[in-house]
Amino acid sequence: MTAAIAAAVIALVGATWGLTGDGGSDTLSPGARSLPWPEDGQASVWVEGVGSLGTKGEQKPVPIASVTKVMTAYVILKDHPLRTTDPGPVITVDRKAAEESSSADESTVRVDEGQRLTERRLLELTLIPSGNNIARLLARWDAGSQEAFVAKMNRAAAKLGMRHTTYTGASGYESTSRSTAVDQVRLARAVMRDAVLREIVAMPGTEDPVTGATIPNTNTLLGQSGVIGLKTGSSTPAGGALMWAATAQTHSSKRLILGVVLHQRADTTPQEGLRAAFDSSGKLIEGVRKSLGTAVRARAGEGPRHQPFA
């Protein structure tokens, strides 16, 4: 397909979806209304070359739990950028991070005081098994204190246009770190431009820094329906949250799809909320991929010429 034809196909798909802005409750494009949007909480989806498909649910700030760590990693890599082959500087584990390893109340990763780990390894331990103590260790290493780092997080959010987001910690443990699905999709778009972050969030697991065993990625959707990342979050006040990245085959190329679901089964248990987030996200991803592929094929003259988003 020539560049001119490809551009025309993208324009037609965009017109069919009927792009929307960042509105409030259920601001879905006409073409996206038939997608399997979650009944609970809120959601937002963006497609490369098409734009926003709109939002489902009232876009009011809600707790986002460990999805917070995406901004933590984003700020760390802005301050200390890495190449994909570069492990980065070596960081010494402090007493606080080691002591927090044994917390029974939150998601942590076992590390020992004085242990020396690279920036890349600590980013993996923050994003893959979702180590709260590791996120806070990176914050202290970068800014001297978690409080100073949080100020950086909020400045970065403002710069990205995340108008309804407030971070109060580097890990997401605090229920006062709040955002909307629309704002988190803005962050996802920025994050997926960084090759190191793209690589890390696609990893099925990482090595335990003490035992050497493999720690699996908390994102169990990886490898299904084109999913290539991003980050889970769950707590009682937040319910289940998931920022996801997937690809869809459109004619001769793959297109990136980004989405966020928040506040799934809030005020139940973290486990129940996360199951709901996986379920709602999986259905939404599959619906977008199928519909997008059908639209492009139809408009490229490859199949039925019906209007899949009418």
Automatic annotation (TrEMBL):
Pfam families: Peptidase_S11. SUPFAM superfamilies: beta-lactamase/transpeptidase-like. One of its GO terms (molecular function) is hydrolase activity. Keywords: Cell shape, Cell wall biogenesis/degradation, Hydrolase, Peptidoglycan synthesis, Signal. PANTHER family: D-ALANYL-D-ALANINE CARBOXYPEPTIDASE, D-ALANYL-D-ALANINE CARBOXYPEPTIDASE DACB. This is Serine hydrolase. It comes from the Bacteria. Transmembrane segments: none annotated. InterPro entries: Beta-lactam/transpept-like, Peptidase_S11, Peptidase_S11_N. Residues 55-261 form the Peptidase S11 D-alanyl-D-alanine carboxypeptidase A N-terminal domain. Belongs to the peptidase S11 family.
